[in-house]
Structures are given as structure tokens and as C-alpha cells.
Known about the structure:
By secondary structure, the chain is mainly β. It has one domain: 7 Propeller (Methylamine Dehydrogenase, Chain H). It is built from one helix and ten strands; from the N terminus they run H-E-E-E-E-E-E-E-E-E-E. The strands form three sheets. The protein has a four-stranded antiparallel sheet with strand order 1-2-3-4, with no helix packed on it. A hairpin with a 3-residue loop joins strand 6 and strand 7.
Amino acid sequence: xxxxxxxxxxxxxxxxxxxxxxxxxxxxxxxxxxxxxxxxxxxxxxxxxxxxxxxxxxxxxxxxxxxxxxxxxxxxxxxxxxxxxxxxxxxxxxxxxxxxxxxxxxxxxxxxxxxxxxxxxxxxxxxxxxxxxxxxxxxxxxxxxxxxxxxx
Length: 152
């Protein structure tokens, strides 16, 4: 059995206590938790039904929410269902959302593949002439601001 010096044990225990309980000071100690505002949104406010699969924010301040029933844009007060274009099924599940370094929203949909939203318009992201990226399984923003797509 390996013997650990007692000073190291105290150090590890102290670090664990700080890590576990340090977040409790994040709230204002002079306020009751009931004094904080909490708001809950539902389908009555325009949010589409079903599970939320992805959330992203664009530089213009909009929150984009991808659900199993489609894409919704939230301005802080209202939800607006966004239908990319007439050729996309209205209830196509949104599986991923990423904002790139230029502020363009990338949308990964179950049936329609990958779309980009920029300047109020959706466009398909094609892997070649006449094709779409329908087999993308994951998206992520890279450090340089681009978007990485995976088909694994």
C-alpha cells in the first residue's frame, strides 16, 4: 500500500471542499433565492412541442432553439417558428445548431441535411454539385471560427 503524507491529504481535502462549496458564493448573500426572477416558457408562448436538441445564439442576440418539431427563433419575448424553405418538411427535427465566426447559423436537420442561415435567408450546404450534406452526424465550431462537420 502506498502511504501519502498527511499534508497532501489535507491539501486534497481542502481543495475538494473549495471546489464543491465555492459556487455557493456566486449568488448575492444579501438576497433570498425567492427574490431572483425565473421565467418558464412553454408551447403557449410559441415554443414548438417536443424535446429541445440544440440551442445557439447569433451575434444579433437571437436565441435559436432546435426541437424535434422544427426550428424556433427567440428574441427575448416571443418565439417565432422558422421554416427554412418550402422544400423542407415543416416538422423536420433539428439535431444541431452552431454559430460560426462570421455569425452565420448552421442548422443540422434530420431530413434536409445541413443549412446555413445568413442575412435572413436559408441555403443548403452542398458537398458537391447537386448534392446536400444529409449524412452529417455532428457539428462543432473550430477555434478559427469555421464549422467542422462529421459523418461518422
